[in-house]
Specification:
Strand order of the largest sheet of chain A: 27-30-31-35-34-33-32
Largest sheet of chain B: 7 strands, mixed
Distance between the termini of chain B: 66 Å
Shape of chain B: elongated
Radius of gyration of chain A: 42 Å
Largest interface: A-B, 135 and 110 residues
Oligomer: heterodimer
Strand order of the largest sheet of chain B: 1-4-5-9-8-7-6
Radius of gyration of chain B: 32 Å
Helix content of chain B: 25-40%
Structural class of chain B: alpha+beta
Number of helices of chain A: 23
């Protein structure tokens, strides 16, 4: 929303310096995008008069002029030979900037004294385009005859004004602030004054007498639900031409291009009131829809499916039955509230016109604007709740201006279709509640003054309550809290008494997952891994490369690009890509991890939304390792560290030995990443909480991962559900420790884990204490069916020093047990 | 299965071998796809002598049924193809690995991501101030993202949020406010003090200062007689703790459907002390977050009586704060996962 300080000041009683207004807007209304003194663009440029004219001796297209700048005569060469003596022009002296280049060039062009084809030129005579006032670049712009040489151009064009662009976002609920009147009203109240509506603002006369032979128009509203009010009036004897300087200047300052006086009037009124107006050419309308007695019928209705209209944007728009249109008997002539039709537009030949001032449903206009992809000044305004009461004053003001600057004569009554007139809204505010809610201690009088200044009518008040009639333009005010905001805002948020709330001492509910993630991050980053954050979106190609099933993904309907169109089902698929990229940067030994939420469309929670479990996923690579050992064991080492943050010990079951039907959807979804003979499920309390190990060769190839690569995926939400084993103190024996090594030869299917557990069981009893270390696992290349596992047990006794005889007995016991249980041969 | 045709018998023999080593997908590909062995065998029926053709067809069909059954019953991962020998997953290291080759934690410079580090610090401050924590969802429904927050269907204020949707009609939250209704129900009745950190998404093109994926931290505080003044004090207290400096704060009006009044929280630039620098765009001030008093409709939607209680809410982006604090000049670094970047923190 563009405003200018001087235009605002002509409307409201704003008693501060213009330079203060931006600050007030920010502090009391909403944020400002930028502000800019328009006059600054025209520094040095003055009105000048052509006093002599000569041919250029050496160039056909150039004219040589002597111009009077109010102080001196200077010679200027111009690319326009049509200037005559006495013409008034804008003279840009050497050292001044060509205004348009401030916006079009990286380095704005500064005029210099130069020779043009051998003739000295001291300055430049500006064209419309160069002066940033219009498109014409062929001719030097002519100023009006009464312009006096030496006057600064900014003064002549009333450009000494500060333009301020207010952020529309903050005005979303304030239809009334899309007009200068609305902003001026607020600023008046902010500076402590009462806003008096301009007389034309409250003019609601409808009995405008036609001054001329009456034009025959009829309005039929067949879309009352979406068009609460439609006002129209016809005018005759219009002379279409350029607008006077004051109007052109006002529009330019508001960043609106002047077109012709009638269009300019509609745009100006729209900027002033926030009430969009439209003008139809009466004769064109009859021409495309001839009717007896030259009667023009304006029919507000829903479009018929497939109806088309050529818009003022020179594009043909196909309409649907959700679009409101303004139509004649047969065809749409405008898309209501969005854009006019080309066939009935006002142009330089228009004589008879119809002004329209209507109100449309904001949701409908929003949808139409989105569906058709058209955003206009009108649609922007109609998307917010506008005041139905403003329709008549706006059209009256337009009529008045058309009489004034386009020689128009009223040629019909005011036609006003307004089935359900506006009903005043009454709201009662509790004074104490307001003060508590905001943190203020304002008296009833202060509140009343603010409300009155804003246009509220106070109907009754006592020491506890104020009852007000909400002004018709404030469609956003529904409940007392809305009025709390008005008072706090105008009084000033920065005058509020700032104090911390007093709260009871209650202990917090633990957020275990947040703490667990924190612990894990600390743990694994200390162990050399780097945490990353990657997008939740990925591509179909990424699914293929990761050997994942894209049928499990949630597809993004309005994705930014195909690369970001699928929600990932595993964090691993994002990490693979990042490992690849880092490897390309020259890192050859590292691990990346991410803690985040993947989404699988078959994994649904009780609330029937996707179940959002937190996962820890990591990929580790080491291109420097060339020996053939499995990288699974590195993944296992990290996994055990992660589990240790919850004091949990897991069983690891080879993926190849697991049954798919026993697994949850989230585990099933990622299994295809892993090489089944060299990866394992992480099982705790019979629940599978993760997968770890080597990556399938095809996936490794896709991401150019080295032979020694592994990955981990642990479902942290599931880990958290596992009951933590309470740590309990166990007495430590005071007697010396001993150690014995055992080497067991077994079949391959005897697991290390089972042997270790057995040793642990034997070594720990009421009397004895011990721990087990794995020293070596050996396999003879000639005998792939057998292996030799070497353990060291370290033990002690609670009651005595263990001597050789005892050690022998323990060793025998172990050997026996291992023979019996595992068929192990002790070497 | 005995098959008279030699060619079919050969296929059968190879199948018997493959069923032990190939996964369902791989079986399908090898035998039943366009290029599959059995598919080819069917095509070759034309080359078979007329009198043997019926027999051939029968046998081929029998084989096909058998393969289909195999594929359907094949859920055991034993059958997943692997070129490697089975390992013992319970062992701490592989067979025949020398002591010096056994797995070691990576001796590299591990790091925590600057954003998660900051989120932990920020949440820690709020925890110290007595706020509970509830993390935000990353896929949600229209009700929580919009309706429960006083955005009726079709409301123009929805345009303020450039939202991603899935084809199933789910929404990728454009703000952590998507958790407000849940948090009120979960931690209610008042007093309620919760912070809601989470990942959010906006449909916008990425450049040095814009990202479609970012982090927010929302907060809500609801009790009897809570005021806008309380809100300003709370946010200021937290910011001073986080930025470790005294700040001037300013409140600007703004608009959000779920707060009334609605504000923008602005702080004096902590780097230049209001003189003007690149961080604050030479204005001396930084707009940091949206905030306001929770709209009565939002309280009501969570079964909290607005006549009895009032509360405030805020939401701010963590990425920007982290960038300001660390002097990071391009937001894309935060999700680029470049080790050269990560190892600086």
């Amino acid at each position: 929303m563009r405003v200018t300080t001087e235009l605002l000041k002509t409307i409201g009683n704003i008693t501060v310096e213009s330079t203060e207004i931006e600050k007030l807007l920010k502090e009391h209304i909403t944020n400002v995008e930028y502000s800019h003194n328009i006059g600054d663009d025209y520094k040095g440029i003055v009105v000048a008069e052509i006093v002599e004219k000569e041919e250029h001796p050496d160039a056909d297209k150039l004219g040589v002029y002597q111009v009077f700048t109010g102080r001196e005569r200077v010679q200027v060469v111009a690319g326009d030979k049509t200037l005559e003596i006495g013409d008034k022009v804008a003279y840009i002296p050497p050292g001044s900037i060509v205004p348009t280049t401030i916006y079009t060039e990286e380095k704005p062009i500064i005029i210099e004294s130069v020779k043009l084809r051998g003739v000295q030129s001291n300055g430049m005579l500006g064209s419309e385009k160069e002066l940033n006032l219009g498109p014409d670049h062929e001719y030097v712009m002519r100023l009006s005859e009464d312009a006096s040489p030496g006057t600064s151009f900014a003064d002549y064009f009333i450009f000494n004004d500060i333009a301020i662009e207010i952020e529309n976002k903050g005005l979303t609920n304030r239809g009334d602030l899309f007009g200068l009147v609305g902003i001026a009203r607020e600023l008046t109240a902010i500076t402590g004054n009462k806003f008096e509506n301009p007389s034309w603002y409250t003019d609601k006369r409808k009995n405008l007498k036609p001054e001329e032979n009456c034009l025959n128009i009829q309005v039929v509203n067949d879309a009352e639900a979406l068009c609460p009010r439609y006002v129209a009036v016809a005018m005759d004897h219009i002379v279409v031409g350029p607008s006077p300087i004051w109007l052109q200047s006002a529009l330019l300052r508001l960043d609106i291009k002047p077109i012709n006086n009638i269009i300019d009037i509609t745009n100006y009124i729209s900027a002033l009131f926030g009430q969009p107006l439209h003008a139809f050419d009466y004769d064109k309308t009859i021409k495309i829809d001839p009717a007896p007695d030259n009667k023009v019928t304006i029919n507000v209705r829903m479009a018929r499916q497939g109806e088309k209209i050529l818009g003022l944007d020179h594009k043909t728009h196909e309409l649907n039955d959700r679009t409101i249109v303004i139509a004649d008997n047969n065809h749409p002539i405008a898309i209501a509230g969005v854009i006019g039709g080309q066939d009935t537009s006002v142009d330089e030949n228009s004589k008879r016109i119809i002004f329209e001032s209507a109100n449309f449903d904001k949701n409908s206009i929003r949808r139409t604007s989105m569906e058709l992809g058209i955003s206009t000044d009108a649609s922007t305004k109609f998307k917010h709740s506008l005041d139905t009461e403003a329709c008549v004053p706006a059209i009256l003001r337009a009529v008045e201006l058309a009489k004034e600057i386009a020689e128009g004569k009223v040629a019909s009554e005011i036609i006003d279709i307004y089935e359900e007139p506006y009903e005043e809204k009454i709201v009662t505010v509790d004074i104490k509640k307001l003060n508590t809610h905001i943190g203020l201690d304002l008296s009833k009088e202060v509140m009343s003054t603010i409300l009155t200044n804003l246009g509220y009518k106070i109907t009754s008040s006592d020491n506890s309550f104020i009852t007000v009639v909400v002004p018709s333009w404030r469609r956003d005010v529904q409940i007392p809290e809305d009025i709390h905001e008005d008072i706090a805002r105008i009084y000033g948020y920065n005058n509020i008494d700032v104090k911390l709330p007093r709260r009871p001492i209650t202990s917090l509910k633990d957020n275990k997952i947040f703490d667990l993630k924190k612990d894990i991050r600390k743990q694994v980053s200390a162990l050399g891994l780097n945490e990353i954050l990657t997008y939740s979106f990925t591509s179909l190609d990424n699914f293929k490369k990761s050997n994942l099933d894209a049928d499990l993904t949630y597809k993004v309907k309005n994705a930014l690009s195909p690369e970001l169109s699928l929600m990932r089902v595993s964090l691993l698929q994002s990490i693979f890509q990042k490992v690849k990229e880092n490897k390309e940067k020259g890192f050859n030994k590292f691990g990346l991890f991410e803690i985040n939420i993947p989404h699988i469309n078959t994994y649904i929670g009780e609330d029937s939304l996707p179940k959002e479990d937190w996962h820890f996923s990591a990929v580790m690579i080491d291109s420097t390792i060339s020996n053939p050992q499995s990288s699974y064991y590195l993944a296992k080492k990290y996994t055990e560290k992660i589990l240790s943050t919850r004091n949990v010990k897991a069983d690891f079951v080879l993926v190849a030995d697991s049954l798919e039907q026993d697994l949850d959807e989230d585990i099933k979804a990622i299994l295809n990443i892993f090489d089944s003979n060299v990866s394992a499920l992480c099982v705790v309390d019979k629940k599978v909480i993760g997968v770890l190990g080597e990556i399938k060769n095809s996936v490794k190839e896709s991401y150019k991962l080295p032979e020694y690569s592994c990955c981990i995926d642990v479902n942290l939400s599931k880990l958290l559900e596992i009951k933590m084993i309470k740590k309990e103190f166990r007495d430590i024996p005071i007697y010396p420790t001993y150690s014995v090594d055992f080497c067991f030869e077994t079949d391959m299917n005897v697991t290390y884990g089972d042997m270790e557990k057995e040793l642990d069981k034997i070594m720990n009893s009421n009397d004895s204490w011990g721990r087990v270390e794995g020293l070596d696992i050996y396999q003879d290349k000639k005998d792939k069916e057998r292996k030799r596992t070497t353990f060291r047990v370290i033990g002690s006794n609670y009651k005595k020093t263990v001597i050789n005889k005892d050690i022998k007995a323990i060793s025998e016991k172990i050997k026996m047990k291992f023979k019996e249980k595992f068929g192990a041969k002790t070497i | 299965m005995e098959l008279k045709n030699k060619n079919l018998q050969k296929i059968y023999t190879s199948l018997e071998k493959d069923k032990e080593t190939l996964s369902s997908e791989e079986l399908k590909k090898k035998y039943l796809s366009k290029e599959g062995l059995l598919t080819k065998a069917f095509i070759e029926i034309s080359k078979i002598a007329q009198k043997e053709r019926a027999q051939y067809g029968q046998e081929a069909n029998k084989l096909k049924t058998y393969i289909r059954e195999l594929i359907e019953s094949n859920t055991n991962f034993t059958n997943t193809y692997s070129s490697k020998d089975r390992i013992d997953p319970t062992a701490p290291f592989d067979i025949n690995t020398k002591i010096e080759d056994r797995p070691q934690f990576l001796d590299e410079e591990g790091t925590q991501h600057p954003l998660t580090k900051d989120i932990e610090i920020l949440v820690g401050i709020f925890k110290g101030m007595g706020f509970d924590i509830l993390e935000s969802r990353q896929l949600d429904d229209d009700y929580h993202m919009f309706e429960s927050l006083n955005f009726p269907v079709g409301h123009p204020a929805r345009d303020m949020y450039d939202t991603f949707w899935t084809e199933d009609g789910l929404v990728l939250p454009a703000h952590t406010s998507t958790m407000q209704n849940r948090a009120m129900k979960m931690f209610g009745p008042p007093p309620i003090a919760v912070v809601l950190p989470g990942r959010c998404f906006r449909h916008e093109a990425t450049d040095a200062s814009h990202e479609h994926t970012f982090h927010q931290i929302e907060g809500i505080y609801i009790d009897e007689n809570v005021s806008l003044g309380n809100m300003i004090a709370t946010i200021k207290e937290f910011l001073q703790r986080y930025l470790e400096t005294d700040l001037e704060v300013r409140i600007q009006p703004s608009f959000f459907p779920f707060t009334e009044p609605d504000c923008e929280f602005v702080i004096s630039c902590p780097f230049c002390k209001k003189v003007g620098c690149s961080t604050c765009g030479n204005s001396g001030w930084i707009e940091l977050m949206g905030c306001g008093m929770i709209h009565p409709n939002v309280l009501r939607e969570a079964d909290i009586d607005p006549n009895e209680y009032s509360g405030f809410a805020w939401g701010f982006g963590v990425d920007r704060l982290t960038m300001i604090k660390m002097g990071i000049n391009d937001i894309r670094y935060l999700r680029d996962s470049n080790l050269n970047f990560l190892r600086q923190f």
